[in-house]
């Protein structure tokens, strides 16, 4: 089960890295004046929650995608002349 972390807005502003690390373990509830105001999730958790899949155009537009190494195997496609009779 995911671990929920609670941070005040002040704590979030002072240590965003801590909030991001905590979001890897589960939702981070951010409070304003002691009351829950926002929730920080990883993008993957957000997609699971909303049922949204990422399409290829969105994936290719994401920052850092140019750093991913990918060697696609060559596709061997047999072709035949079209019968236009």
Automatic annotation (TrEMBL):
Domain of life: Bacteria
InterPro entries listed in its UniProt record: Antitoxin_Phd/YefM, YefM-like_sf
NCBIfam families associated with the record: phd_fam
Function: Antitoxin component of a type II toxin-antitoxin (TA) system.
Homology family: Belongs to the phD/YefM antitoxin family.
UniProt protein name: Antitoxin
């Amino acid at each position: 089960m995911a671990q929920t972390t609670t941070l005040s807005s002040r704590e979030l502003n002072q240590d965003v890295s801590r909030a991001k690390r905590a979001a890897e373990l589960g939702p981070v509830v951010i409070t304003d004046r002691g009351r829950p105001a926002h929730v920080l999730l990883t993008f993957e958790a957000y997609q699971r929650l909303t049922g949204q899949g990422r399409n290829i155009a969105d994936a290719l537009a994401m920052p850092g995608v140019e750093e991913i190494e990918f060697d696609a195997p060559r596709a061997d496609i047999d072709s035949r002349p079209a019968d236009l009779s």
